[in-house]
Amino acid sequence: MRLYEALVPYGLADERFLEVAGRVAQFFCDIQISGGSFGRWWTTKGRPENTSGTNGAYIATFLCALLRHKDDEQIKGHLLLALEYYGRLTDDGRFYGDTLDADSCDKEAGVALLDLMLCAWDLLEDQRYLGWAKKAARFVLSWIWQTDGWLIPDSPMGKRHFHTQGMTSVSIANQHLDFYGMLIALLFERLSKASGDAFWHRQAVMMENASRQLVATETDMLGRSNAYYGWQPEQMNHTDWDYFDREDQIRGTFTIDIAWVAVLGYGAWLTLQEEGYITCDESV
Length: 284
Description:
By secondary structure, the protein is of the alpha+beta class. It has ten helices and six strands; from the N terminus they run ααββαααααββααββα. The protein starts with a helix and ends in a 10-residue tail after the last helix.
C-alpha cells in the first residue's frame, strides 16, 4: 500500500498492489475471533492458542489504511468489530503482550493502540476513537522521562553529556532507555493536531530532541570505526542491571546495536518532516 501511495502522484500506481493487500486483509478477516480480536499465538493447525494482548491492533491499523483506497463493507465491518475490542482493552488499561519478548506491561502496547485509534479517527471521525487515542497516549506518557537523571560523569553517556529527559523506558521488565520516542513523537504530533491540545506537541518536541542524541558522525563514531557511520545504540544502561551481568556495562553505558533503531528513527523523522511537523534545519 505504501508503494501504491508513493506512485499515485506519478500516475504509475498499479492496482495489483491493492489486490495483494486485499487478499491479505481477507485472510485476517477470515481468522478474526468472534469478540473482535485478531488473536496472538496460533497453532500449526491454525487455531488461536493465546488471544490476549494488543498484537492484533496492528492488523486493524492495516485495515484502516486499506479502506482509504478500497471501499469494502465487509472489511469495514471486521474493522469496526476490532475497534470495539481494542477500545475495551484501552478502557481497561490492558496494555500488555505487544512484542514477542515483552509479556509484561509495555509502552509499545500503548503505542499500538494509540496508532490504531488515530488511524480510525482519521478514517471514520468518530469521537470515541479520539477518546481512546487520548487514553492510550496518557499511558505512553507514563514511560517518558520528564527530567534528567544522574549519570556517572566518566561513563560513556556521562562523557557525552547525555540527557535522559525525553527518553523512554523500555518496559517494567527492563528499565533501560531506548530511542523508540521518535515514533511516539510522530503519533503525539498527530494527536496534538487532532485534539487541538498543544501539550502533546511539547512532549513530541522533547522526544524528538532526545532521540537525536548518540548518532555516530565524523565528530564522534561512538567508539566504532567509520564503517558504522550513522549507528545508534538500541538501549542505554543507567542502572545496576545488565542483560549479561557485565560489571563494565552498567550505570551509563551503551553497546547494543540493532537495525530497528536507525530504521524507525529515520523513517519517523522523514514522516515528521513530510507532514510538516518539523523542518530539516539542524539549528532548531
